[in-house]
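Bench notes, afternoon.
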Amino acid sequence: MEGIVIVKVEEEDEDEEDHFQRGRNSTESSPPFLSQSTTMNERALLSSYLVAYRVAKEKMAHTAAEKIILPACMDMVRTIFDDKSADKLRTIPLSDNTISRRICTIAKHLEAMLIARLQSGIDFAIQLDESTEIASGPTLLVYVRIPEDIIVVASKT
């Protein structure tokens, strides 16, 4: 009898509105767990994305943010302002895995924006170039030219 799920359905005497109203009342009377949970500061999150964008733009290693950028920023803030302000920078998530995830998120967002613009019906020119590298195999390079800017998308296959 593996893989069989038995579900017991009971009839309810009350209507749906009473059921949802009772659930809402019980939620309102319960302790506010969500408001007490620890949330990341929105400015720290934005700062993390901005640093990840700069790391990707300069083609730096993901570890550069944690090992070079954060200590340098802390030194500058500590010198110009104070230690308390510099310690606030420690709340910015800049580990190598975090920066890597942020770069992937930014890339997916840019790809979605490109696809949306191409599907919007504007005129564009497209050029494809395929080449083969010795170590990693074929590479497809796609140039998309839109009248107001040039967007380059490269993907390896």
